[in-house]
């Protein structure tokens, strides 16, 4: 596959992503009109009657006198420049809040993702190689525990164990510089990563066993290749393929769906922001968060697809027998 | 080929090898006792049906048995060393550079995400260490040329971009890249087309001669073994039953099993009234422990055959047999081979009453998304009369399966006209429920793989009853009809209560045939119905088909790549090549006097034990 066709494929995917975002933005914009109450009431963030001069100001500020499509167009133009208006709760720009929260969430999500991938793949690999040994059984048994442990329970347990009984990690806060952040976010990341790691261990183990039993691994060893070479060159890469396909979902889940862990460790992340904004009927904030989440989901999936194209020539070259 | 080499110091020697598989609590025997020796540069064959243990023997020799399968006794010696005691590190010096290994399936043997050139580079001595990237690449291109791949671009292709034959060539090049003294080839040509099979075997022969390499060829096909090997070992249910020089084994088999295999092979040159199959199916080794493994299926068995495992003894110079009665029955075994009756001349094709049953005019099929490629069917015209048996011969990719699937309505043709018993299955017209029903009453299909075409969760009876009810809702006693169907394919009616898991491949295929017969079709379409079966089962099923055709007047469309098989069953044959019919006519005429180049090539490719097949 030439550079040109790869670029073309990438271009196609980007166009598709933009179209998807446009559809989502329409739904997000409609939130103002779909929520109970008039648009003015929602944008004022309150119930009951609004003084006439404030009503006038709101209508002008949000262009409520314009036709619906024009309103949408203005909203989209602002959204593209990352302007989602002001939060009703704080009267500060939505974008500022999003930026601050995103930093924490991406760090936490990335951290948990690295933990999951490294631990999940390594443990799965060992379990597969030492199939039916004590090590394998122990790993498989602990994945069952890990899978059935809810993140908030793990979070509380970790808090109690490593912040109170043996206080090696802080119980709350999100740190300042990189190392400090790393220190602060270790327990939350662990709590977040536990069940996904367990899932990935099982997944990797199955994928590895599948590859280990395959003819091409036997054939490679029959040509005198060492087990280590075969492992890295054959088993690793082939087992990576099914793993990449689930990694995007895992990452998204970490960044966006960490509400309970964020609450447990008093972190200011995206997940808790969304919950707060919905509870407070802070429509501009909800719109901002939802658009941000949509971008993250689409981007993560795109990266995962590109990665699997890089690893698997059958995807890249449209695998079919010549 | 006829001379037996003097074996002073065999390159490879196997003594009393026993292989077992660890199960829950107990171990099951895979190979009970095997002795084999291979002289330098010699070719020996290991012949056996599925379940004989031949593949596990091959993997034991290279020390790569699957997990939970192990050698429980015996010795494997190579170059004066005992291989079974080697450590993994020592094994690495043996594998590839002393013992090469090629497996059966070229589609799974190569790493799908690695370019062919790199596969060869990593197989070079010391993985090409100490040489530059360019040198290694040049070397791999040279190795590809050695196996007949002169197109340098192949080095940059991934395996899935190549045909089966090409993949097998790449695999062979990789297997011998470190110049092993002995190559172990496990069914290297079985998954390939006949024409490709011959090319691969020729290549192996050439490489072997050029390098003076020993070859252990594992195959289920006696014809292949005879054409390739100096000596042949016959394995049955984990037991070695006979070993002799190839030519001698062919002319004077000294074990009833070898004899049975030889007579169940359909002759290429004539049609016989009935093939002589071996009754029954291959048992698992543990069921026949402590006695002659072949005794339950043997025509000459006596109670003495059940007293202990018969030892392998030298019954003639350098001819070993594990039959204790061989001296008494030797003469009789020679007899029935010459007795194979020729079939009576074919009855003249019945004049079609009211036109043919199936008529295809300029049938084209192009698969969606492959418009850039050649069409699967490029405008073929053909006819099948009522009660006529027609063969469709071609290699994979010739469009023969597409044609069959279009006939039964599983595939819609792109253009042209296809009429089956008055129902137009042509392009553009969607079949309505009534026509679909009529079509399925007229034509039924029997698939290649009887292991995947029967639902393992349902009893055989319920699978058959379903079809009976579906096609004849007024049937008063479906169970009686099921029993009748089972009997018509030579199976006991009691099998209706059982699930397919207890059946052998041949029995499963009979059930599949019974299911197709349930609707009393006018035409049965068989897609390679025998290729998944063992040799002895093939003859049985073929006889069944001949009988059904004769007694019931059902027409057949018999799709196969096996010309010897097709000769035994069909009246007329169409030869399909790349979506086109290149030749057609009465089967005897086409086989005796092929007009088309491709037909000629196909006929030349039929495995023949001797003569000019592999020259």
Automatic annotation (TrEMBL), chain B:
- GO biological process terms, semicolon-separated: peptide transport
Q: How does it sit in the membrane?
A: Peripheral membrane protein
Main location (coarse class):
membrane
Which GO-annotated molecular functions does the record name?
A: ATP binding; ATP hydrolysis activity
Q: What domain of life does the native source organism fall in? A: Bacteria
Query: Which Pfam families does the record match to this protein?
Result: ABC_tran, oligo_HPY
Q: Which GO terms describe its cellular component?
A: plasma membrane
**Domain (ABC transporter) ranges:** 14-262, 358-603
Ordered alphabetically, the record's keywords are: ATP-binding, Cell inner membrane, Cell membrane, Membrane, Nucleotide-binding, Translocase, Transport
UniProt lists the family membership as follows:
Belongs to the ABC transporter superfamily.
Which NCBIfam families does its entry note? Answer: oligo_HPY, PRK10419.1, PRK11308.1
Protein's name in the database: ABC transporter ATP-binding protein
Tell me the classification of the organism that encodes this protein.
Answer: Bacteria, Bacillati, Actinomycetota, Actinomycetes, Streptosporangiales
